[in-house]
């Protein structure tokens, strides 16, 4: 049990950790490209280290000198069979994207993970990959890990209309389509984060995107690149909300990734009336500095095509809404139920323990504000983003807040509690 910090005010500047989605992909693209890839500002958190170790297990030489990760790319055909099952830990992105990559191998691989990963649905990836000719099966005939992937070097193309907005599903299909012979087409339900598409281009490949329609020809040969990972807006989100709801605060987050498929949190902060400034915008690196000040907030509605642009930020946005005047409605967010925890229930239950007025619905949350938050005992439930959101809640809570399973934050942000501490003044 960890006693969480309280703050009278937050002041200062912070460089948030590297982007998790891009860090995962930098290893994957480096492994399947030909030649050397270097990655600077790689996120050394548990999830991305699961990806790094998985590709080392598949015979890819990957070295970390503490500054730069160097990957000796093996090309699509160069991954080696492993005798023992590969441990993917907590990472949904790793297991799902690897299923797409391994679909084109000529061997069998078993992927397993922790208790949370073992409950996450995989049919969303297995079904389209099976239709391309790969064999994939879950534990005892279910769709849950451990997953056995038996690849084929004869993958066929796919014309796929996605049933849910998911960058993981889209990316898994793209990795398989890169290895198939002919043209594949994906129609997204809503546009989701496009890091895979961008990195296919960065690594010398070709892909055509027009709104929700994606076309890709296979097979393609990719070549190694030098990647610099920008900061993660999903990690910045905790500080953007902390700065907006803590009295007398002003925080600047530097080098934050602002790829438009990820910036829904900025739209919501602006719609709620937050004092937010965007400076030092660097369009080539898609990064900027974000400054937030204590704000007078009003409720809003968050729905539709905005949801995939802020899906991982919804727990901390719900916290933000507890401090806004009026009602905030989040809908079309049923995907939250199949994250590391059921984040609809986790957000409502844990914040209500501190005095929030949140109702869980089938596809989102209804938050009535403003409500003062009290002390209490809460849990991350083993979910990194729920743990970090609760530490932000504790900053403004009237009494002591104790957090169970605080170590979960290391999945995406090992130094989170230290970074919060560094911004607390007069606490
Ligand atoms: C991710 C996609 C999203 C997101 C996850 C990372 C990615 O998941 O929630 O944290 O890197 O592709 P879904 O594709 O399941 O929505």
Notes on the structure:
- This protein is of the alpha/beta class and 427 residues long.
- It folds into 2 domains: 2-18 and 230-423, Enolpyruvate transferase domain (UDP-n-acetylglucosamine1-carboxyvinyl-transferase, Chain, Alpha-beta prism), CATH 3.65.10; 20-228, Alpha-beta prism (UDP-n-acetylglucosamine1-carboxyvinyl-transferase, Chain), CATH 3.65.10.
- Helices cover 29% and strands 26% of the residues.
- The chain is built from 12 helices and 24 strands.
- The protein has a 5-stranded mixed sheet.
- β12 and β13 form a beta hairpin.
- α1 (20-32) packs parallel to α6 (195-202) and α7 (233-245) runs parallel beside α11.
- The longest helix has 13 residues, at 20-32.
- It starts with a strand and ends with a strand.
- The mean pLDDT is 98.
- Residues 21, 93, 166-168, 171, 193, 311-312, 335 line the site of shikimate-3-phosphate.
């Amino acid at each position: 049990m960890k006693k969480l910090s309280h703050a009278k005010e937050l002041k200062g500047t912070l460089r948030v950790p590297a982007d998790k989605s891009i860090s995962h992909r930098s290893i994957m693209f480096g492994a399947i490209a030909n030649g050397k890839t270097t990655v600077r500002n790689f996120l050394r958190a548990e999830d991305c280290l699961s990806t790094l170790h998985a590709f080392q297990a598949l015979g890819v030489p990957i070295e970390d000198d503490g500054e730069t990760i160097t990957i000796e790319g093996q090309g699509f055909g160069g991954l080696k069979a492993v005798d023992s099952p590969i441990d993917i830990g907590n990472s949904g992105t790793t297991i799902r994207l690897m299923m797409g990559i391994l679909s084109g191998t000529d061997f069998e691989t078993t992927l397993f993970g922790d208790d949370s990963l073992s409950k996450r649905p995989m049919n969303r990836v297995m079904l389209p990959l099976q239709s391309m000719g790969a064999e994939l099966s879950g534990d005892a005939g279910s769709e849950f890990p451990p997953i056995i992937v038996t690849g084929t070097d004869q993958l066929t193309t796919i014309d796929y209309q996605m049933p849910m907005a998911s960058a993981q599903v889209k990316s898994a299909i793209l990795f398989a389509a890169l290895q198939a012979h002919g043209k594949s087409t994906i129609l997204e339900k809503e546009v989701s984060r496009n890091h895979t598409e961008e990195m296919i281009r960065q690594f010398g490949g070709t892909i055509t995107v027009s709104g929700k329609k994606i076309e890709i020809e296979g097979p393609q040969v990719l070549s190694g690149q030098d990647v610099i990972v920008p900061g993660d807006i999903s990690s910045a989100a905790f500080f953007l909300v902390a700065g907006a709801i803590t009295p007398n605060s002003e925080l600047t987050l530097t080098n934050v990734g602002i790829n438009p498929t990820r910036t829904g949190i900025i739209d919501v902060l602006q719609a709620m009336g937050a004092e937010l400034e965007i400076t030092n915008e660097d369009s080539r690196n898609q990064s900027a500095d974000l400054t937030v000040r204590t704000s007078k907030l009003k409720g809003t509605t968050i729905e539709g095509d905005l949801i995939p642009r802020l899906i991982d930020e919804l727990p901390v946005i719900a916290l933000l809404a507890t401090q806004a005047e009026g009602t905030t409605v989040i809908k079309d967010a049923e995907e939250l139920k199949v994250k590391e925890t059921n984040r609809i229930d986790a957000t409502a239950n844990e914040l209500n323990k501190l005095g929030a007025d949140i109702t869980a619905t089938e596809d989102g949350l209804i938050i009535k504000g403003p409500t003062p938050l009290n002390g209490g005992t809460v849990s991350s439930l083993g979910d990194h983003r729920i743990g970090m959101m609760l530490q932000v809640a504790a900053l403004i809570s009237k009494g002591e807040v104790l957090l169970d399973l605080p170590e979960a934050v290391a999945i995406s942000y090992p130094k989170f509690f230290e970074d919060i501490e560094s911004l607390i003044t007069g606490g």
